[in-house]
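User: quick one, fold this
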Amino acid sequence: MKKFNTILLIDDDKATNEYHEIIINLAGVANNIHSVTSGQEGLDYLTSKKNYNGMEDTYPQPDLIFLDINMPAMNGFEFMEEYNKLDEDQKGSHIIVMLTSSLNPDDQERAGKNNHIKDYMDKPLSKALVLELREKFLS
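Assistant:
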């Protein structure tokens, strides 16, 4: 069974991040999960150079990023604007899934116009949704 090496959760609500970590662990689809509570922390993580997977001085390369839309200071769309400015080696080949509790259809349309956003889902994640994403992106 294929797994995502690392999943990055970007959501300002710590309880939501914790719940999503539990769901991802129950689904058994990731080797590592890293969570941050703001868009800026997500950018800082992606642009940091550390020892990842035994390789020194490399950028972290999460396979999958779950990105909340509605966050203070920097919302999901503002994060994407800054993400688009990153160097290609910082972007890697991330699969970005935008998560929302919004009922605004304009959000889904706007997300669909960004080539980096591969899916758009309602929060919270479920085990079935996570398994569906694994099937969709890793098979």
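User: anything notable?
Assistant: Residues 4-127 form a domain with the Rossmann fold fold (CATH 3.40.50.2300).
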